[in-house]
Amino acid sequence: MRSDDGGSTKQRDQAYRSFTRHLLASDIRPGQFVSQRELVALTQMPLGAIRELVPRLEAEGLITTIPQRGMQIAPIDYSLVRDAYQFRLILEKEAIRHFTTTASDEAIAAIRDSHEAILKRVEAEGTTADIVNDAQGVDWGFHDLLIESLGNEIVTSTYRVNSLKIRLIRQELIRIDGHVVPVMHEHLGIIAEIEKRDADAGAAALERHIIGARQRALGMP
């Protein structure tokens, strides 16, 4: 019995990872309707694993079951953008205060180096597709690191789901492509406050950054 339970959990987790990977790859899109059998074909996981996966996706707000129509991937709308960015701001403001007072000088220096390296590459090569992808990784990595510094698995797991929604919003509305240099400079401004060990100023700079991203997602100047 234990072996079956373990196998079922493993398949459900594999199905979840496959679903989110395809979602971020735009193989399925926000607002799209899908059936369980279509998810079987997409994820290459058995129907039983998909049936067990659906309640988790519903609980996380990634899909909604609509009677007589099927399952709908969460659409990108005003409410999702507002709620996702507000939740992100609440968690990250707490995280940056903790990170500012606990991170080592070496860790902070490494973060600065990764951002400056992107800017140097842009100056030398322009905004190529590879640089955009690497910049996106540096961007996400910085915010993820702040959250992970808390060492709180409940916060990390809930942030991870919200981060998935943020990334979907970015893909649909505000890809980093045209914002590489401004985003890197905004991050460097936040990093400068972290280097000063000024938690209040760091939180304020982070808040301006996240509010700016939310405004871009909503099409506001």
TrEMBL record:
Native species:
Paramesorhizobium deserti
Protein name, UniProt field:
GntR family transcriptional regulator
Q: Which SMART domains match?
A: FCD (SM00895)
Q: Name one Pfam family in it.
A: FCD
Question: HTH gntR-type domain spans which residues?
Answer: 9-76
InterPro entries, alphabetized: GntR_C (IPR011711), TF_FadR/GntR_C (IPR008920), Tscrpt_reg_HTH_GntR (IPR000524), WH-like_DNA-bd_sf (IPR036388), WH_DNA-bd_sf (IPR036390)
The reply to whether Transcription regulation figures as a keyword in the UniProt entry is yes
The terms under GO molecular function for this entry are: DNA binding; DNA-binding transcription factor activity
**Is-annotated flag, keyword DNA-binding?**
yes
What broad taxonomic lineage does this protein's source fall under? Bacteria, Pseudomonadati, Pseudomonadota, Alphaproteobacteria, Hyphomicrobiales
Q: What keyword terms does UniProt attach to this protein?
A: DNA-binding, Transcription, Transcription regulation
